[in-house]
Amino acid sequence: MKTEDIKAKIKGDIGQEIFFYEKVVSTNTIAFDLAEKAKEGAVVIAESQEKGKGRLGRIWISPPGVNIYISIILRPEIEHKDITLITIMASVACATALRRTTGLDISIKWPNDLMASGKKLGGILTELKTDQIKIACAIIGIGINVNIDITEFPEDVREIATSVKNETGKPYPREDIVAEILNEMNKWYKILNDTDKKTLLSEWQRLTSTLGKDIVVIVGQNRYEGFAEAIDDEGMLILRLPSGEYKKISSGDLTILR
Ligand code: BTN
Predict the structure, then answer these.
(1) Nearest CA, atom 9, ligand 1
(2) What pTM, to 2 d.p., does this model score?
(3) Is the pLDDT of residue 6 over 90?
(4) Residue 252: closest CA among 211, 220, 205
(5) Rounded CA gap, 20 and 131, in Å?
(6) Cβ of 251 less than 6 Å from ligand 1
(7) Distances (CA, A) of 15 to 38, 68, 75, 181, 244
(8) Predicted confidence band at 203 (pLDDT cuts at 50, 70, 90)?
(9) Which residues pair with 238 in a beta bridge?
């Protein structure tokens, strides 16, 4: 990855400072360590991760030289109740950037999966440092499968995951995609900090493939099956259960049934 090529395309504050590593345990962990001294909008980029972190304690497969592994350090000025909107903001930025750079029909599976042809192409892991009053720091970790050959994935993952190259049939410069993600993030982060929820949520709704479907969500030990009706102003998923009752869900593992 050539960081000069990324820097040359950066338009706003996000991505002005880039920390590049060949190999890390996890870019999110490095970003946490740097969070206090780094400028807001600083980005950690690695060529590979030894223990890339996925959501729900899973491992994010992170071989060298083919994919994108980045973590962005932000200090959002939002209330605790709006925490889910950080990931909503990041997923809108990533989906828009990927659509523009690759031409693929990328959609968002709630809360944060980036999907192409019904398979996962990327994911976002937001980790927070908070105190009683405010969010001190948000680390937005983004993993995108770009030029990986899907035969490199373990067999069970191959069924559910894809890459840009696998979808388009050709390799893409990762630098262009990273720069576009950072520029889009700059735009959507301003919208989040202005608490312009309407603009953010309506764009998320335009890009999602989750609403209007029958789904199952696993939340810890609980399993909820129902109709994905909407997301509320705080980014929570509103599920209509078979009983007709509504259930609000803030995070979980979601499968679309039909
Ligand atoms: C998910 O499970 O969908 C989230 C995956 C997030 C992976 C990225 S790769 C860069 C950053 N560093 C990590 O350790 N994880 C995130």
Answers:
(1) 143
(2) 0.95
(3) yes
(4) 220
(5) 29
(6) no
(7) 12, 14, 14, 10, 46
(8) very high
(9) 230, 248
